[in-house]
Amino acid sequence: MTTQSDRLEALADAGVSIWLDDLSRERIETGNLAELVKEKSVVGVTTNPTIFAAAIANGERYDDQVRRLVADGADVDKVIFELTTEDVRNACDIMAPVAQATKDDGRVSIEVEPTLANETQPTIDSAKALWAAVDRPNVLIKIPATLEGLPAITAAIAEGISVNVTLIFSTERYGQVMDAYLTGLEQAREAGVDLSTIRSVASFFVSRVDTEIDARLDKIGTDEALALRGKAAVANARLAYAAFEEVFSSDRWKALESAGAHAQRPLWASTGVKNPAYPDTLYVTDLVVADTVNTMPEKTMNAFADHGELRGDQVTGRSGEAHTLFDQIAAAGVDLDDVFLTLETEGVDKFKASWIELVDTVKGQMAQAAQA
């Protein structure tokens, strides 16, 4: 009889690191996060402002800290900074044994302020501040893969800051992200930084690709176009993995690896299925391949634990058919360059909206604290 933990353990044994896309003080203080590590093969955590907004709005465990900060005259940015970095610091401590026992896991991600997504130096400053405040070697600072974010990624890595590069949609941008990482490692090496202390993942967004391309195929409406729905996201990730294999087998990489560097693993993000017509474990089952991370909402993780199928490596050696699929999508009339530009622009806008949501939530908590 296959149990829920068996399916997740088998997924981990296939080389997929399972990271939870959620965090709250309640998960930390009740022992839930530690239990997920023990029982559900969870070896990492990712966060974002929406996750923190939900945690703060729905939990009383932040109230005392908010009251203290308000009494000390903290503004909303300071309160957000203190609440979120404390949660991530404590999560890092829970994940520390995993980090010590594994090469690259046991990591907890926290995002630079999303309103800075198109500003290089402020992003670097935000990354430094978060890195110093959390003060744990297993934290990852999330930096968006905008054009302005690329030099910020290099600068952070060069200073020994571990980075989760987020908001990657196209393989073209992914190539630039890997170059930014390697350049940062080269600069770190020149500065005498111990490369073995640096970790990075590249978060490739999955489900949104299908959402955007499917909508365009629906609008075209031909039988040929409609037959292509629900296939682009997985194909895009397969192309990304092929690019990863190429870069991290190059002579440039081998020189860094010999100096102690760790590869920047692909991370499949946005793996909750948005179209109810598709299997709810689609972006887990079809993206199984070694040396990757899949960061899942708990709902997706539980769905895979309950009924997910493991059909072996679904990625390696399949870039050719992925290229063919994108040729067919383009031939059907979809402007792929515009797809990826739209996804990045909307992604940045959603990041900023998420931040505004967090600010509004914390302002509400601060107002209540002031009246208490």
UniProtKB/TrEMBL annotation:
This is Transaldolase. SUPFAM superfamilies: Aldolase. Signal peptide: none annotated. Keywords: Cytoplasm, Pentose shunt, Schiff base, Transferase. Belongs to the transaldolase family. Type 2 subfamily. It comes from the Bacteria. HAMAP family: Transaldolase_2. Its EC number is 2.2.1.2. The active site is at residue 142. Pathway: Carbohydrate degradation; pentose phosphate pathway; D-glyceraldehyde 3-phosphate and beta-D-fructose 6-phosphate from D-ribose 5-phosphate and D-xylulose 5-phosphate (non-oxidative stage): step 2/3. NCBIfam families: PRK03343.1, tal_mycobact. Coiled coil: none annotated. It catalyses: D-sedoheptulose 7-phosphate + D-glyceraldehyde 3-phosphate = D-erythrose 4-phosphate + beta-D-fructose 6-phosphate. The gene is tal_2. The keyword Heme does not apply.
